Protein: Sulfite oxidase
Organism: Nannocystis pusilla
Amino acid sequence: MQIHERSRRRFLALAGGGWVTAALACTAGGRARGGSELVQALPPAVFVRHGAHNAETRLESLPVGRLVTPNDHFYVRNHGPTPRLSPTDWRLEIRGDAALRPVSLTYEQLVALPTVTITRYLECAGNGRAYFSELLGVAVEGDPWRDGAYGVAAWTGVPLATLLELAGLRGSAAWVMPVGLDAETYARPMPLAKAMTADTILAHRMNGEVLPMDHGFPARVVVPGWIGAASVKWVGALEVSAREPAVEANTEEYVMLGADYRSPPPVLTTAVVKSAVCLPWPAVLPAGRRTIHGLAWSPFGKIAKVDISLDGGRTFTRTARLIGDNLPVAGTWWQLELDAPPGDVTITPRAVDEHGPTQPSLSQQRPNDKGYLFAAPVPHPIRFV
Ligand SMILES: Nc1nc2c(c(=O)[nH]1)N[C@H]1C(S)=C(S)[C@@H](COP(=O)(O)O)O[C@H]1N2
Ligand SMILES: [Mo]
């Protein structure tokens, strides 16, 4: 393996702040941490916190080769504190101007309905936001997630189609909006056709366990292939309507704003093809023969291949080996063998979906004010010592 000068410079630019942060983290071990508004534990070896109610998975803490993310490693993205809902008081209301007969289900009634289990990923639209400033030099609003607002789970639940049929749909039905029971209501509509898709479900189990509190207990929607914001947690109602409801999550948030976008701003739906190196940022590894691991995922299908650049994304001269499960709209692990001399290098993966879509080059990556859908390949800085 050759370490190119360009890659070395890129590495130094990228790693710059990182070494300092790493050093500070070591000395600040005893410092009291900010309070958490989440239920689950957030060990610093597993999560990077973003404020009181958001936590990004350190991908390097995941069990290599196991596609499904353990529940206690799954990223959490909340707009407020996790509501602690009681399954005895909870109801699912199916209602709205386009529902024939409103229905109210108890938790027991919901879990008694026939279920499906689907293994799919969720990813926050803001995942990769840090790279807008780090790689493109563009300032954007929002928490600086790297790659860890991504997780895969086997979701068990009831298809939305089954639930909507319980209420019956009027001919006018065109939109379905799951409504969350957060302290400040969170809701986001989807077109009826998306709600009726076989793998759009109301999940009440995650990886074989009862849905954890932070991930939406007692029930959450899973809308595979769409930005995480569509997968509403703590669902209390499904509202069926003839017209598209206007709520913050499709008017102000999760829309593309900026010089490149006109008004009304495009509403975000489908996610983008991505890949990541599962190592600390920056990473320090012993020189010599090394196996580098990473993940790749696509909202469209399986991953066909992962190309690797060792010169900061200029040329892609290597191909990674895909390992373990490679599931559509979930992802795959990949690995790369390297014989690395001491020195600084960047490793840049680029995923290709089985149907053709791939990651745009950095020069094609358009910025947007809120830093959504960063899709370009990311040069991951590694120092071999
Ligand atoms: N009710 C409710 N649903 C929600 C949210 C929320 O704040 N409230 N956040 C959304 C966002 S932005 C994302 S990315 C995913 C995160 O799901 P997770 O926390 O289970 O990873 O949940 C979505 N569903
Ligand atoms: Mo999100």
Q: What stands out?
A: The radius of gyration is 21 Å.
